[in-house]
Structure formats: structure tokens, C-alpha cells
Amino acid sequence: MGEVYRATDTALPRQVAIKVLPPAVAADPDRLSRFDREARTLASLNHPNIAVIYGVERSDGALAIVMEFVEGPTLADRIEPGPIPVDEALAIARQIADALEAAHEQGIVHRDLKPANIKLTRSGTVKVLDFGLAKSMTAAPVAPEPQSITPTVTSSGKTEAGIILGTAAYMSPEQAKGLPVDQRCDVWAFACVLYEMLTGRRAFGGTTTTEILATILERDVDWSRLPASTPASVRTLLRRALAKDPRRRLHHIADARLELEDAHATPERVTTTSHRVPWMWIAIASVALTAIVAGAWRMSSASSSVVTMPTARLSFVPEPAISARPLSALAMSPNGQHIAYVAGQDDLIYVRDIDRFETRGLPGTQGADMLVFSPDGQWIAFQTDDKVKKVGLSGGPPITIAESAEGHGIGWESNESILFGPGRATGIWRVPAAGGQPQQVTKVQPGENSEQHPEGLPGGQAILYRVNSGAGLQIYAQSLTTGERHLIDRGSNPHYLRSGHIAYVQDGRLIVAPFDVVRLEKTGPQTVVLTDVRQTENETAQLALSQAGSLAYVPAGGIGRRDTLVWVDSSGAETPTTIAGDAFRMPRLSPDLQHVIVRLATGNLGDLWMYDLGSNRRNRLTFNGASQFPLWERGGGRMILSARQADGTFQIFIKTLDGTSPDTPFLTPRGTNYPLSWSPDGRFVATVSVDPETNSDIWVLTLGPSPTWKLFLQTKFREGAPTFSHDGRLIAYVSDQAGRSEIYVRPFPGGSEVPVSTDGGTEPLFARSASTLFYRHGEEMLAVEIAGPPITVGMPRVVFKRRYDRGDGVWPDYDVTPDGKRLLMIRPTPQEAPSRVNVVLNWLDDLTRTPAK
Hints:
Blueprint: E1 3-9, E2 14-20, H1 29-43, E3 53-59, E4 62-68, H2 75-79, H3 86-105, E5 108-109, E6 118-120, E7 126-128, E8 135-136, E9 158-159, E10 162-163, H4 173-176, H5 183-199, H6 209-218, H7 232-241, H8 253-265, H9 280-285, H10 287-302, E11 312-316, E12 330-332, E13 338-343, E14 348-353, E15 359-362, E16 369-373, E17 379-384, E18 387-392, E19 395-402, E20 410-414, E21 417-420, E22 429-432, E23 439-440, E24 448-456, E25 462-469, E26 472-479, E27 485-490, E28 492-497, E29 501-506, E30 509-516, E31 521-522, E32 527-530, E33 543-545, E34 551-553, E35 563-569, E36 574-582, E37 584-589, E38 595-602, E39 605-612, E40 618-620, E41 627-632, E42 638-644, E43 650-656, E44 664-666, E45 673-678, E46 684-691, E47 695-702, E48 708-713, E49 719-724, E50 730-735, E51 742-747, E52 754-755, E53 762-766, E54 772-777, E55 780-787, E56 792-793, E57 797-801, E58 815-816, E59 822-828, E60 837-841, H11 843-849
Antiparallel strand pairs: 1-2, 2-4, 3-4, 5-8, 6-7, 9-10, 11-60, 12-13, 13-14, 14-15, 16-17, 17-18, 18-19, 20-21, 21-22, 22-23, 24-25, 25-26, 26-27, 28-29, 29-30, 30-31, 30-32, 33-34, 34-60, 35-36, 35-59, 37-38, 38-39, 39-40, 41-42, 42-43, 43-44, 45-46, 46-47, 47-48, 49-50, 50-51, 51-52, 53-54, ...
């Protein structure tokens, strides 16, 4: 119907939507007539569920409608992951009916109602859009609109009565035949939309327009697809609204609205008790447990006394299947009534209510990881594209909370604040849950890489978190008033339970022990609750705990990572190498492109291996289980790397690949150091040094008989991932000085910086024989030509947009050939996605009755 732009009204500062006719059809009288009719239609309607028109503008021969800008997904987006829960679907349907009733009262028929023309705002308000095909029931007939210029026309079939207009799947039979229509065609389309919300399927399907129209005219709806919990009155409403004979169809949308309101006022229950049976979907799947659960609830309904529920262990198969990629793909609401998980090819968040069969997806949450519920259970925070975002439990557009988040784990400290890690060596930070300026809470200690999985303790005076250091993964509790911290144990995923216990995972075992939130220490023997919790690559547990005494987890063995090294050329075409089967990190090509050094991830770290790209033969280069950041010398006979020391810090070494010389250390008193780039002349190595006060800084190591260190860049912000240009005159790097990670470039050995990226960027890497700098933005790989000094930066271009593996920092987790024409990427190939989720009910009650182990 037109092109729609988002714009700012500068006279009255507000966001608006501007619809204009495409230039190719702007002079067409029929299109202009329809465009003008839409403006007049909207001007006659004033209803909260219909997008408002602000005016019509003409400029230089162009005609534009200025309308209310409606933020949020369309109903089509909301339905795409699957059916909408019945209560939510009925609430949306009531608002759609309200909008149609207002239009019908003005004598206007929409004629193109469908999920794509319905928006869902953040506040839960429904907005009906696109009255471009609307028709006045009282106006004189208008000339038929040619099908060739109507985007929503899905059939060219012309009958004696006129042209078919609308979208095929939602057309009433009379509309599909090209007969005159009235408000009953909107009633039909409304019922199609409601059916689709409840089932996740179109009421009338087909692969072609002809098949869809034939289905509408000849077949009935598959009523068996409606959820079992659909009220009988709603089933009756749908049958009456989808009667093919318009004389037998529900005549007025107001009648449908009243039916929906009655269904909401007197909901029909599946059970005969006064409460919906929790865990119904699990109990049905586990026949042996049905009698226990039902009996216990009958007792709780009949008596006001406290009834101790028995511990129950159950399983369900998530649909769609949980993704294998996320480090932490599972969360449970504090009241134990909702389980959220990441699933599908897009790593979307799905929510399963405990008392329902249906699973619903949350649009806009693609690429999600590190899920956590808010304390009130109404929001889910997650990490995606190096940002912290939150999304409402019932959906709506995600909201960005923090722009830079490369660390692992998010903790909802309270309803007002969120804890997160911006990246390696940054400590824990706090940001308002509504968004705002983050503030640092903790600093890393010497020898530590990062602090992860933060969680606030009751009273707001202390936090729990996991430390990733040379000593492995350890759990600490830290006072926010004194800064004193206490080592709890080795492990991951610390969680405080209101019962006065601390829970964490160690070697696949869920351990629980009494915990004193004042003394910040365990006060009694620990108990092993589970022994088969799945832990992902960095030992993050796929486990979720609720304060209500329930837990959910992915059992061990349900997921495994297998990667393939692939070539990607400048056009984005992919060619696999022969190297596959392991969990790879940090691939670095030899100068002759015959070999590649990778870190094989084992647990949280790993060792370095060299592969022959032709034969797939490999040699192990390190044996300490904690080596990383390999770099080839330009001649190919030596490598530089970072390895863990006895004090827990990481230091830089030079190693001969044939083993003829001992490793040469470059020790520094500054703590942990990582090599990132070797200069073309072999004299310098650009490194990152972790500093507790300044987070991470860029230093340059000058090689020679008496190696020296010189500071290149140190600010109050984080700097990392330095990379030398092909001529050694520039260093590109990442900094978060703009509030998120961006790419910058400076002359070497010194000079002023020049920004390269403007919308976020990480993992910069110069080609070794060309002036091309590569960097990543989400799933995009970008390339930009850079010369100087004086520095000139070209226009970045997208090389490809595809999901390849990314590291847990800003350093490049890929490599590029010297000429910049091919990239060596890591393509993750999960061996097996989790096939089930285990659930344990009332396990805390059982814990108090079980002797400690």
C-alpha cells in the first residue's frame, strides 16, 4: 500500500510513521484515490486500538500520511514461534474486536484484517493498522482497483462482480468470489486471526493462492487443533464466525466482543477444584505421578492448613528443542510457574507455563543467552549481541539495558537493578533495570580473568559470583560495604535460596549447604542433590532454581560441541576444511597457509594444537591445560603464546615449534598478559595487560636481547584486541569509551585515535599483506580499507552475515589470509541438542528431611 518510514516530528518532539506512495505508482489515479481514502478513513476513526492519523502532507508532488508510530512486534511476529496461551490470545482478540466495532460503527469495513496488520505495544495495547483497503458501507461504489498495483491482492481471478482484494488466507468466501462485502467479512477475518493465535496455524492453508481460496470455499476448519483449554463459548464463537454462508455467520463484531468478555469473566477450568492443577502438563506425561499430585491438591483445596508436598521428579521434551549453542539456556521464575529456555535455529527465548501444554516464543530475542528472571517474575533479562536486554514475560519488544556485555552471566539484584559483567577483567557492574549508566561494583584481583554469574544477596549488602582465574573456577561471596570477600568453594552457578542455603554446581553435581548471609560463609555440611547436571564449554551449568522449591535442569550427556574450520571468501561463499570434530578456539594460520594452530577447548581453558590443513594430522604443542592466544612468527619457526603460571596469572612465552630450544618467558610485574599481534618486522608484540585498577590496557613488548615493555594505551575505559596493520604503522583496537565496544585505530608508536565503527564492533584483525581491517558486529563480518598516517578510513562493507563461533571476549576468534581474500572461521556444529529437561518439585522440603552428605 506504500512505503512507511520512521521519523521525528521536530515541531512536537515525537516519533511518527510516515506512509508515502512509491514513486513508481505515485501518479496512478487509482492508487492516489485509495491512498486518499485511507487518510480520510483514519481521520474519521478515534479509538485507542486504531493507529491515529496526525495529518496529510504534500511536498514536491509527493503525498504522505503522517501517523502514530506504534512501537512493538506485529501479531504475526508474536504467533510465528507458536500458539499464544489462551488467556493472552483472548485478551488480544477483545482489543481487536473493539477496534473493528469502532470502525463498523462509522460504516467502515477493514477488508484486510490479518496478523501482519495488528501491532502489540510494550504496554500490552493492541493497534489495528493499514486501512488501505477499507471500504465505506455507505459511500457510493468506487472503481475497481487493478490487482497489479495492490500488494495485498493475492489472486488475479476476476469475477463478474469485480476484482478480488485482500489477503487470501483471511478472505471470507464472498470476498474470495469477488462478491460485494460488508462487515461480516471482517468478522470472518477476525475469527481466522483468533484461530491462528490459539493454534499457531492458519485456519485455511495452502501453498498457492488457488489452493488457499479452494480451501476457504470447500473445506471446514480443523477444530481438533484448538487447545483443550479453549472455553466452549469461544469454540462456539469461532464456528459461528466462520460459517461460509454469510446469512448464517455472526453478523456483528460487537457480539463477538461480548462473547469474549463473558469467557474472560467466567473462565472454564479443566479440573473440578477451585484451583488450576499446577504441573498438569508434566503430571499427564507422567502417569505414575498423577494420583500423588492430584491427591495433594485436593487436600490443599479442602483445608487451609499447610500440606507438605512430596518430592517429585519429572521430565518433559522441549518444543522446539533447546539450542546447543548458548552457555546458559535455561531459567525458572521465582515462583516456579514459568520455565524459559533458548531454542530453535535463531536461539529465541521460549516460555512454558507450568500449568499449560503450550509453549510461546518471545519475538525479538534472537541470539539469547544467559537467561534470568526478575525477582517479581515479570521480566526475563538476557544477553545478545554483546548487550544486556530484557523482555516482558508476555512478550513485547526487548529493551536494551546495557550496551556492552561480553562477560558471562546476569544477575537480577532487585526489581530496580541488574548485575552483569561488561567483559574480561572488568569486575561486576550494576545497571538500573530500566536502563541507565552502569556503575562498577567489584574489581578483579591479580591473576583473575573475569568475575561471572553475579547474584545479589538479601539486604543488598553482598553478592555471590564465580571467578575465572588461573586457579580454575571458584565461587566467592563479597561484602559491598567492606570489600571483603570469602571463598566458598570450587564450582559454578552460585545461587542463594531463601531457605538459608547456597546452591552451586561442581563437576555436574548440584551441591547445597546452609549459608550465613552476614558472615558470608557456609555454616553446615553440604548435600549433593543431583549428580547429572549438564555443564557447557566454560562449565556453566544448564540449571535453573526457583525460590518456591522447584528446579529444572538439562541432564548430562544431552549436548556436545563439535566444530568445523571453514574458509569464507570475499563474496561470502563457504568451503569446509578437513579439520572438524573438536571444540576450537583462536585459529591462527601459518605464514605459508599450510598449518593452523588452535586452542582445543577443554573445560574453561585448553591446550594448543597444530593441524596440517591438507592432511588433518595434528601435533600437540602445550601440555599444561591452560595455554591460549597463539601467534605465528612471520618466518613460521616460532610461536608466541600466553600460559598460566603457578600464581594464577597468565604470562607470555616464545616457543620454538620443533622443540629445539627452551621456551623463553617475558615476565612482567603487572599480572596477566595476552599477546594479540606480532608486528610485520618481528620486533614488536602488541599485548593486553589485565590491571585491577584500569581493567585492561594495551602494551607493546619490544623483542631483542633485552626485551622491554612500553605502554601504548591506558585509560579508565577498557582497551583490547590490538592488531598491527600490514606495514606496522597503525594499531587497531577495541575500546568501550563510547559505552559499548567500538573499533578505533591509532598510529604506532603513538598519535591520536580515529574511530572506525559507529554502531558497535569487536574482534578487529588486519590482513598481514593488505590494508584491509576486518571486524565483527553481531553476525556480520565487515571489512574496511585503512591507510596512514595520516589515517584515512574507508566505508565499511559487509563481507557476510552468518552465524559463526565467537569468543567470550573482544579478541578475534577467526583468522584471515595475508591478502585479505579468505577468512578462516569456526562453524559450530552441535553434536546433539538437549532432548529433555528434568524437573524436580518440592526438593527443598526433602532436603530438610535428608541427612547431609
